[in-house]
Design a protein that fits this description.
Keywords: Membrane, Transmembrane, Transmembrane helix. By secondary structure, the protein is mostly helical. It has one domain. It contains 1 helix and no strands. The longest helix is centred in the middle third of the chain and has 59 residues.
Length: 65
């Protein structure tokens, strides 16, 4: 009888470890996705701002030629 309860405990331990492993993987993936999105948003904002400021400075400075 105690072998059966031991087997059930080991099985639940395996499921618990599997659950923790899946949670850890999902958390790593989620943080990676969030990090990539942050980088893309920052890059997009800075590139747009740099192009906008370049356009403004080109517009304000008289062209010599």
């Amino acid at each position: 009888m105690w072998l059966r309860s031991l087997a059930l405990q080991l099985q639940s331990l395996r499921w618990g470890l599997r659950y923790l492993f899946i949670q850890l993987l999902l958390q790593i993936l989620f943080h990676g996705v969030v990090h990539v999105l942050q980088l893309l948003i920052l890059h997009f904002l800075f590139v747009r701002r740099a192009r906008f400021l370049q356009g403004v400075s080109d517009h304000l400075t008289p062209s010599t030629g």
